[in-house]
Amino acid sequence: MPKRHSLRVDPISCDGHGLCAELLPELIGLDEWGYPVLRATEVPGTLLDHARRAVAACPVLALRLDRASR
Amino acid sequence: MTGIMQFAASGPRPLWYATRASGTIALLLLTATAVLGIAVGGRYAPQRIARFEISALHRNLSVLTLAFLGLHIVTTIADPLVPVSWWAAAVPFVSSYRAPWLGLATVASDMLLAVAVTSAVRLRLGRRRWKAVHWLAYAAWPVALVHATPGTDARLPLQLGLYTGCLAAVVTVVCWRLYRAGPGRVAARLSAALTALAVPAALGGFLFSGPTHARGGAPATPLTVRYGQSSARAPHGGSP
Amino acid sequence: MTEQPAVLSSTSALDDLTGPHGARLLHGWLTTGGPADLNEHLNRYGPPPLPRTTRRRTVAPLVRAVEDAGLTGRGGAAFPTGRKLRTVAEARGPAVVVANGMESEPASRKDEVLLALAPHLVLDGAVLAAVAVGAQVVHLCLPRTRQDQIRQLAEAVQQRRQRGIDPVPTQVHALPHHYVSSEETSLVSWLNGGDARPAVTPPRPFEKGVDSRPTLIDNVETLAHIALIARYGPTWFRRAGRPEAPGTTLVTLSGAVRQPGVYEVPMGLPLDAVLDVAGGRSAPLGAVLLGGFFGSWLAAREAMAVPFTKSALAEVGAGPGAGVVIALPESACGLVETARVLEYLAAQSAQQCGPCRLGLPAVAADFAELAAGGAGDLERLERRVGLLPGRGACRHPDGASRLAATALRVFAEDVRHHVRNGPCAGAEREPVLGVGASHAPEGRDWR
Ligand code: HEM
Ligand SMILES: Cc1cc2nc3c(=O)[nH]c(=O)nc-3n(C[C@H](O)[C@H](O)[C@H](O)COP(=O)(O)O)c2cc1C
Ligand code: SF4
Ligand code: SF4
């Protein structure tokens, strides 16, 4: 079964480090204070590796990649 | 292993040089790792390079630190003139050789190992547990430095200069980090800053009071020429 | 449990349960003129109809009855209560029930009034729900600022215990009273020994809440409706309201109406009929605020014919919320009113999430400038408003965003006027929306 991956930010943990937007600009922008704005939550397969890297890079583990079966 | 042994038997103490060189490099790398980690923790956002690059550098240098630390430990154990066992390298304060200093060294490397291992699985560990262990880095760094100061090389001006530079770098970024952590929790931040400033003071006093005059062990070889040789050879000695 | 007691099976007897104006929850008070104590409550309704046996692994009849009744939550989100009951009932392990009587919305009074007039309906409902979902304890959460009510409810619980009415114990708690400390994850966090501040979901409370147990959190009015559904069944419940929005609901009507107060109305009444319950408008209306500070502005002319249901209000970009309707007279300035509420909401943020901590004050400041007649940067304001929803741990920024966005739409004419000519005359008059003495909670205020 194909898996769907979706991004989520834990807004309480997120410190606005902004690393995620540097690594995944396709899906994550930053607001005027440096906090992430998700353009879309669903991660297309082509961006999956980048998304994983962004998740690993977040210094406070505030970015999550959830997997759900379709 | 036998390669190391042969080296040890043949040359003018290449293992001894390798140990000192790898130790010095490990300390420099550790300092760089710590400084970069603190920069990440304090949300340092430079103009020219991306923030994730600082974070990536922090992680990569930490791996390199551990590599040189490993080398440092292996050459120490392999050196027949330094009676340190594997056992003593893993468990603090069981060695009889320069017991307090080696004990500190073991404590520091164990803490660093814990920091590194938990970081490798931090996505699974969760932030709180990972970070709880990661704070150990702040304890490991001064312990490593204290372990280094009574070393054979510590009387070399170059070596002393390096240590002072490391100390200055870390104390500076720690103060910057505490300043960035505000507002609020003023008392906690002030006491942390005082602790940070107390480390160089204590270390300075400690150096002056003279424990650097090594008791026992190998004789000091305070010549820069040989020092350079040893560091050039060290990698060969370490990867038989 | 859905079968009805014999005496009440005739239509006329059931009709007796419905008081003046179709009131159900407030029926007792409307007939006797006083709060119902335990004796009076038992005389009128009898003891709570507990199931004789609680079998594991079967859905309690009450869950099905509430599903069939089509009851939706009265705490603001109007989520189907039956579905929530079923989820908690089917979750693994013993559950916990939390009755949300916090009523943090400054414009709402309905929970306070309900708890004062019919406390035993609420307690019945909480205990019946607890038995139905397999909970071993009920936590009733009340705001610390209402000490009299806390004492009254503690006494009511005590009397029930002495009479051995409830198979499940109820604990009454006094929580800090801030705007977001009544959000469901705040209650869970406080009951678990932490701050009454929202937490990140998932896990949602129905999966893992108080003491890590599956936790059912319902508004006290929702629970009181459950107490009646347990007795008289879904068919009776559906005899008020509309098929898609059955039953009655408590509303707090204020602003330019003749007799502001708390009333019980059937769901689906057109908005002008709802206002008529409070004696009708006392001045020509410019707009109404639906759902409270968390809600939406509607222009009076587009609002009056809309039925008071979730689906009908959704079509015009609003919702019933917790039943707050504020009528804004034409003479008042909607921008000034909104700016004050936004300032209040910004101060009430739990300061945990960057977009809420920084975004709400920025929006409030922009709005204040607009209300004061400054040139302002409308584009920036709209962008900031658009960036709030969905970016906090709780829905607080979403609510503030909705208020600001609907204000900009409904008062668009005034916006143009303010930008061109400075503040209007309405800015001078006394505010319609009372935000009370608001101070920003901090530190220990949350525990
Ligand atoms: C022995 C190796 C390491 C040392 C000595 C070290 C040291 C430090 C120090 C001193 C800090 C500053 C903490 C703070 O003030 O908040 C830090 C932060 C950090 N380190 Fe390391 N670290 C090491 C390895 C790693 C590794 C392998 C990772 C890979 C995941 C990592 C990831 C981080 C991150 C993400 C932060 C920022 C934490 C935050 O913002 O809360 N570190 N590190
Ligand atoms: C900021 C905020 C404040 C809330 N305040 C209340 C409140 O005062 N009373 C209440 O019953 N629900 C309040 N809620 C809704 C609760 O989180 C929860 O959804 C509700 O209690 C569920 O009960 P119901 O299904 O019976 O409506 C609030 C939600 C938010 C986001
Ligand atoms: S990297 Fe993490 S902390 Fe930084 S903005 Fe992204 S989610 Fe937030
Ligand atoms: S969104 Fe705002 S109110 Fe809600 S938890 Fe975050 S900071 Fe607190």
TrEMBL record, chain A:
Cofactor(s) it depends on: [3Fe-4S] cluster
Pfam families for this protein: Fer4_15
Keyword entries, A-Z: 3Fe-4S, Electron transport, Iron, Iron-sulfur, Metal-binding, Transport
Coiled coil residues, start to end: none
The name this protein goes by in its record: Ferredoxin
Matches recorded under SUPFAM superfamilies: 4Fe-4S ferredoxins (SSF54862)
Source species of the chain: Streptantibioticus rubrisoli
TrEMBL record, chain B:
Keyword line: Membrane, Transmembrane, Transmembrane helix
Tagged with keyword Transmembrane helix: yes
Entry annotated with the keyword Transmembrane helix: yes
Membrane-spanning residues: 20-40, 61-81, 101-120, 132-148, 160-179, 186-208
Identification of the protein by name: Ferric reductase-like transmembrane domain-containing protein
From TrEMBL, chain C:
PANTHER family the UniProt entry points to: NADH-QUINONE OXIDOREDUCTASE SUBUNIT F (PTHR43578:SF3)
Family: Belongs to the complex I 51 kDa subunit family.
UniProt superkingdom: Bacteria
Stretches the record annotates as Disordered: 1-20
Pfam families the UniProt entry points to: Complex1_51K (PF01512), NADH_4Fe-4S (PF10589), SLBB (PF10531)
Soluble ligand binding domain ranges (all copies): 251-282
NADH-ubiquinone oxidoreductase 51kDa subunit FMN-binding domain boundaries: 66-227
Keywords: 4Fe-4S, Iron, Iron-sulfur, Metal-binding
Protein name, as recorded: SLBB domain-containing protein
Compositional bias per record (Polar residues), positions renumbered to this chain: 1-13
Keyword Iron-sulfur: yes
Domain NADH-ubiquinone oxidoreductase 51kDa subunit iron-sulphur binding intervals: 339-418
